[in-house]
Amino acid sequence: MAWRNLGRNRTRTALAVLGIVIGVIAIASLGMAGVALEQQATSSLGSLTDQAIVSPGEDIDTDGLTETQVETIRDVAPATTVIPQKTNRTELSARNGEKANVQVTGLENPAPLYDIAVGDAPTRLETGTLISESTARTLGLEIGDPIEYDGQLFRIRGLIASDSGFGPDSGGELVLPLSAFNEQDYYNSVTIIAEDGPAATDAANAIEAHFNEDDDEVLSVTTYASVQENITSFTDTLELALLGIGSISLFVASVAILNVMLMSTIERRGEIGVLRAVGVRRGEVLRMILIEAAFLGVVGGIVGAAGSLAVGCVIFHLLANDPALALAWSSSRYLLYGFTFALVASVLSGIYPAWKAANESPVDALRGS
Amino acid sequence: MSVIRLDGVVKRYETGVETIEALKDVNFYADRGEMVVVTGPSGSGKSTMLNMIGLLDIPTEGEIYLAGRDVSDFGEDERTEERRSQLGFVFQNFHLLPMLTAEENVELPSMWDTDVDRRERAVDLLERVGLGERLTHTPDELSGGQQQRVAIARSLINEPDILLADEPTGNLDQDTGATVLDEITRLKREENIAVVSITHDEQLVEYADRVVRIVDGVVQ
Predict the structure, then answer these.
(1) Domain check: are A94 and A212 in the same one?
(2) Are residues A301 and A201 in the same domain?
(3) Same domain for A138 and A185?
(4) Does A154 share its domain with A255?
(5) A210–chain B Cβ distance below 8 A for any pair
(6) ipTM score of the complex?
(7) Which residues, numbered 56 to 95 in chain B, qualify as contacts with chain A under a Cβ-Cβ cut-off of 8 Å?
(8) How many domains is chain A partitioned into structurally?
(9) What are the phi and psi torsion angles at A304 (to 5°)?
(10) A277 → closest Cβ in B83, B85, B111
(11) pLDDT tens digits, one per residue of B156-169
């Protein structure tokens, strides 16, 4: 019955449904866009989130971290991989005349820290070197070629993949065994790799608590977990803002439904009067019109959710290169939200017209027709 | 006992500046099996009177008895229940729902009742008014006379005691009006119901068992 009533003015019904569809698409796809952005930002940070970087603080007495301090860090942060590093900068020049300014890092265990594109990354680096793929290309170097640093020759064992994300050391890089830095007594930094973000934060806190007192900063500890938190809180805010914009469009859509239902009840005033005259109860008239409004919401919601899914697939394809991620619960729940909003908004905006139609005196309604 | 009785009914309307007395101390009754036709010029109060009899409106003063019960003080919902169970309505403009078939229109008053199946009675009534072949037609596929006969079938679906007709032949030509009135007369006898009809149509008066004339809110 409700269905056939809606069928009577197809254009008007279609326009009302279109309004809801747009509202649902706005809510759901903006929500999904927020999720996609967050996932993209998180994956750019990548494995950095489970790391903590310890560097000399303002109040350290030495020029860097001592061997003893590194050992203490190992004790304070158990169950983590502790990788002390010595760093320097140097200019490499090749036979082809090209030059490259690179950061030189001396460490023992490069495997957890570097993505190797070609060659291997040993867990104990005692001979040989790793170099950034891009730098190697510039200098015309290949695996097995020698590189001279500080009077010693090192053969290239692996090429470091260029890091697409943001993090430290994304420029040209040369990784050497610690033995190359024999004349340097102190470590410039220590990277701590924990199991996950929270564990990294715990380790960082433990280290700070152990070495630093009040204003005395011996060691400075940076974690990316806090960066991750910032990103998450930023994208949460962004998501909320996007949802807000979406809600406005759904609000507009529900005003459209209000208008459609009001028009259609005014148009059918006489008919509703007849219904009331032949003994149809007020509650039954109310229900009939609410069901019509709910129908608009359900149809608009389903079409809108389908449309949002398509939009979501496009967004995820563009941002994360994987359209199927749109189906994951974290983003597909916005389809459910959009649909629910559509249904609730339609029923809410159906209430007034329904109430008005149901409570009009049958005499007035009949006379008016 | 009269199935419907109006006792000293007064109806006043406030129209901002003045008070209009549409009905002035009206006494009226109708019995089962009789057709009472109320005539009068326009504005005489006959529509107001039909609204009183049909429990669509409440009197300012006086009492209305439906099957001996005082229903004058009934609220909207109670009156709806009485209309649902005791009364049938036929209107000048038929007032069928355009998107429903003839059969669905007849079932309309009981469409919300899940416990009673009126389908059989709806088909039976449509057959009795000669529309057995038109069950699935929508109103725009039916002539005026056929539409009014559907409306008559609809008014009887709830097995009412009283059939109220507001200018039932007003939109029909003479011949069609006559067949519709024959139909009403026959059903009145078969169902043993009271028929109250208001009209200016002299043709209708010929079918009346009793004529009540009302002028300026006063029954003559």
Answers:
(1) yes
(2) no
(3) yes
(4) no
(5) no
(6) 0.89
(7) 56-57, 76-77, 80-81, 83-85, 87-89, 91, 93, 95
(8) 2
(9) -65, -40
(10) B83
(11) 998 899 999 999 98
